[in-house]
Amino acid sequence: MKIKKPILIISIGILLTLLAFFALNVYNIIQKFDEISKQSKHSSILKPNKVILFDYENSRTDTILLKNKKVFIHFCATWCQPCIEEFKSFDSILTRQKEFEIYFVSDEDSITISKFLNKKNYKNIPFYSLKEKNSAFNHKALPTTYFSINDSLLKRVTGKYDWKTFFDKTHN
């Protein structure tokens, strides 16, 4: 069976048009997902087995992220306005919250942290420093929070967040 040349050319043209249309749609979908992920304040990372934190008395604290352990690691600074706004609610949240192991991490020195806590009269905020770089905590903005409520993932939230509602919802 011999196919006529004009029919073959038209068929190839239609096929190429459909292929280009499909490729453009796939490209647009990928761009949309990329745009959504860039705008999102939330993401997930794999939970590291161990994070080494130091309290401000320089005694070593090993935080081992084990199965079924709820962990909350909040990177912040005393000069960061969104962080300061969150501290107000954290001080009261931490008096009644017992389900999560909570760590506030700053790269500021202990004198700066102490002065800030005393000036604001915060009694319940446990500050630590992360002396060793951990690739799991690759944040570029403050505040950035990592929390774990399951076995394998840490959720990451960047920016100011309503933590009172979060702790109220996760309270058993």
* Sheet of most strands: 8 strands, mixed
Question: Helix segment count?
Answer: 4
| Strand segment count | 8
**Rg (C-alpha, Å):** 25 Å
Elements, N to C (H/E): HEEEEHEHEEEH
How are the strands ordered across the major sheet?
1-8-7-4-5-6-2-3
Strand content: 15-25%
- CATH architecture term of the largest domain: 3-Layer(aba) Sandwich
Molecular structure report:
- The protein is an alpha+beta fold and 172 residues long.
- It folds into 2 domains: 39 residues; 129 residues, Glutaredoxin (3-Layer(aba) Sandwich).
- An 8-stranded mixed β-sheet has the order 1-8-7-4-5-6-2-3, with no helix packed on it.
- Helix 2 links the parallel strand 4 and strand 5.
- The longest helix is centred in the first third of the chain and has 35 residues.
- About 5% of the residues have low confidence.
List keywords for this structure.
172 residues; alpha+beta; Glutaredoxin; 2 domains; 8-stranded mixed β-sheet; 4 helices; 23% strand; elongated
Topology:
Blueprint: H1 5-39, E1 42-46, E2 50-55, E3 60-64, E4 71-75, H2 81-96, E5 101-105, H3 110-120, E6 127-129, E7 144-148, E8 153-158, H4 163-170
Parallel strand pairs: 4-5, 5-6
Antiparallel strand pairs: 1-8, 2-3, 2-6, 4-7, 7-8
Concise description?
The chain is of the alpha+beta class and 172 residues long. Helix content is 41%, strand content 23%.
